[in-house]
Structures are given as C-alpha cells and as structure tokens.
Amino acid sequence: MNKKKNTSYIRLIIQILFLIMMPGLFTLIFGQLKQIYTASIKGNFELGRILPMSIEIFILIPLTIMFGRFFCGYICAFGTINDLIYKFSSNVLKIKFKINKRVDKFLKLIKYAVLLFIVIFIWTLGNKGLNGLNPWDAFAQIIQFPPSVQSILSLCVLILVLIGALFIERFFCRYLCPLGAFLSLIQVFRIVRISKNKSNCLNGCNLCSRSCSMGIDLEKIDRVDSIECIQCMNCSAGCLGNNAKVSIKSKTINEVAVMLIFVFTFIAFRGLAVSMINNNTSKIDTVSGATRTSVGIINAVADALKQAKK
Ligand code: SF4
Ligand code: SF4
Ligand code: SF4
Fold this sequence. Notes:
Electron_Trans/Redox; 3 strands; about 60% helix; about 300 residues; transmembrane helix; mainly alpha; FMN-bd
C-alpha cells in the first residue's frame, strides 16, 4: 500500500471511530463556547462552575493553538460526513466540479461573517427569532434521527449543505461553519507545519494543491500558513516527489505519527480532565443535567443543544 493510501485509510478509520463514538462533539463544543461567551458578557463567569461542563472546549482551545485545526481533520463528525458525501459523489457518482479559486477564496469569508452574526445577534442580543438562520441548527439535525426539522429556513440550510457537499469537498467547513471559523482564528502558535520546497517540485506537478481538502493553493508557497488548513495530510502524504513534509517544531515527523499524536493527546487530556472532575465532585452538571460518570456525552450534547437554542 502506498503512503497516500495508507495515510488516508488510517485517517478515515480515526474519523469513523469518532463519528460513531462522539457524533455530537461539534454541537457540544459550540454550545460550550456559547456558555463561556454568555457567562463572560453577563459577568458571571466562574471557572469552577463552567469548567466541569465545558471540558472539551477548554481542552480544544490550547490544543488548536498548538496543533492547528486537527479537530476538523479527524474528530468532528460533521467534517467526516462532508468527507463521506464528497467521496461518494466523486467516486460513485463521478461528479467532478471545480470551483473558481477567487470565488472559493471569497466564499471562505462567509463563515467568519456567520460566526460574527451568531455572536452579535444571537449570543449577545439574544435574538431568538434569528435562530432559524443559524446553520448550526441544520448542522445538528443531520446527526439526529429521526431529524427534527424546526423551520423551513433551517431545512433549506441543511439541503444546501448536503447538495454543496456533493460538489465541493468540505463545503460546510470551507464556507459556513462558525466553529471552524473560530478554530481558524485561534491557531496562532501552530507548531505542526507542512512545508515544501517549491524549487524542488516536479515540473507542473501541483498534486498537493489538487488534493487539498480545503482547496488551499499550495503552488507558490514553501510552507502552509493558511488558517484554513485542517491538518488532513493529503498534501504531504500524496507528494510524488516526497517533497512536502510535516514537522513538529521543525522536526520532520511521519504523517501517521502526527495523526496519532493529535487524537491521543485530545483523548488523553479529555480523559484526564473528566476523571479529575469526577474525583473532585459528584455534583450534578448544571448544564447537562447529568453527571459526567453516569449519562455522559449524549445527554450533555442534548442539553447543550437546548441551551444553544435559548
Ligand atoms: S469546520 Fe466545522 S463542521 Fe467542519 S470539521 Fe471543523 S468544526 Fe466540524
Ligand atoms: S505534490 Fe509534491 S512535488 Fe508536487 S507540487 Fe506538491 S510538493 Fe511539489
Ligand atoms: S494544506 Fe495539506 S494538510 Fe492542510 S488542508 Fe490542505 S491538504 Fe490538508
């Protein structure tokens, strides 16, 4: 099996495992972000109260600052669903659609506007009437079975997202996801980098750009600094000239090792935080209505969803 296939199979296995085990993590984390934000602006942010019910976001923020958007590349269920839809459309339906680079760059800005919109109009001003416009509602409904369609508007967003995913890889992640926008903005001290010496590239190759899941143009660069990068490793693993490399603090590392570092660090920190909190308190989680030990993440997700809609 070649390096590209090997790496992409391992990534797919990781993604599917997270999709099965933690399908609601993206919704939970966005709900936690909302709680931290609203508690902060209302002046009632108490770390001791917020931390036990927001473990995931407290772990994800520092890890994203260091590792970049690995959550999007490996852990987020909706990212995986976008990948699966795109794989189906390109391999089975043979849909080949190419978006204009300029249009793609422009559309990528929409997700930052969506995040700003949610923060200002829904989280800050508490405009409940605008909840239907929140693509997160459509996002959450995809993993709920049977789907509870709350409004025609959010159903339209859902349909748009699904159709978009057939034509453009990671459609929702590229253009609409507010959590993706947030994670993009915080990865300031990224130590995991992909570099390629463009002068060593095979003439006219550009395979890395063509295989980039986020449509980042890699042709004229020596190092990937784009905040759109989700650390999927398609570019480095697929480089025919073995010219694109992934490194941690300038030390070249094998792609699979980096993937395992991403996911095991997240799992280890989360496990450690949950067990520390469980050791320190058996109090009922005021947000989820469930103890971390008893009911776990599914109820926490359901309640975080309710909170997010308030
Ligand atoms: S951009 Fe959003 S939907 Fe896509 S993988 Fe990241 S958090 Fe998930
Ligand atoms: S795939 Fe490798 S050789 Fe081809 S353009 Fe990218 S870095 Fe250069
Ligand atoms: S630059 Fe490479 S690692 Fe980043 S999203 Fe594109 S293909 Fe994936």
